[in-house]
Automatic annotation (TrEMBL):
Transmembrane segments: 26-48, 68-89, 149-167
Transmembrane helix recorded as keyword: yes
Protein known as: Uncharacterized protein
Taxonomy of the source species: Bacteria, Bacillati, Actinomycetota, Actinomycetes, Pseudonocardiales
Keywords assigned by UniProt, alphabetized: Membrane, Transmembrane, Transmembrane helix
Length: 189
């Protein structure tokens, strides 16, 4: 009896999210991702375009709330939101788009691990290899600003490829879709 209840409860959230709410959920998720990108791009412009020192370059939100940029909690929170969003929306994808979405999910999983390592260091005060500040593994060889631009890029690209392929599926992929993201087979795009 308990197994039957669990089986019927699980699709309650996953079902609508990956069927009738898939398109609005994807667009909401994309909005969050683009807003985050804007912050990283603003920070890069401040450093490389305006010549600001890295500690002063805080993106847009960081100009009004500097503690946000220095808070590992905020960075970890975003990495976790990305991981959860990529995982939760994955079941709505099929075929080629699911492959690309899964690539983005795998890359974000690693990005999340790096942020988890940073928040653990910030919380405990025990920094990696005795560094003066919390440091991620790849940050040992790539500066943090550039590294996070790279991480966001390598997650964003397969995510966008997945969304484009999802909205323009082959006939076979469209037949396997449970959401209404793509136009029906035979409809004009």
């Amino acid at each position: 009896m308990a197994q039957t209840q669990t089986q019927t409860r699980a699709p309650v959230v996953a079902g609508p999210l990956n069927t009738r709410w898939h398109r609005p959920a994807l667009y909401a998720f994309l909005f969050v991702v683009i807003a985050h990108w804007a912050e990283h791009i603003a920070q890069a412009v401040q450093i490389y375009g305006l010549g600001w020192p890295t500690p002063r370059a805080r993106g847009v939100l960081g100009l009004w709330a500097p503690w946000l940029v220095s808070s590992e909690v905020m960075h970890y929170g975003y990495a976790l939101v990305m991981l959860i969003g990529l995982f939760a929306l994955r079941k709505g994808f099929v075929g080629r788009s699911k492959t690309w979405w899964t690539i983005a999910l795998g890359l974000q999983f690693w990005h999340h691990i790096e942020h988890l390592l940073l928040i653990i260091q910030a919380s405990t005060g025990a920094n990696l290899l005795g560094r003066p500040v919390p440091t991620s593994v790849v940050q040992l060889i790539v500066p943090r600003v550039e590294l996070h631009l790279f991480y966001n890029f390598v997650v964003f690209v397969p995510m966008v490829v997945a969304m484009v392929l999802h909205l323009r599926p082959t006939r076979e992929e469209r037949a396997g879709m449970r959401c209404s993201c793509a136009p029906p087979v035979g409809a004009a795009s």
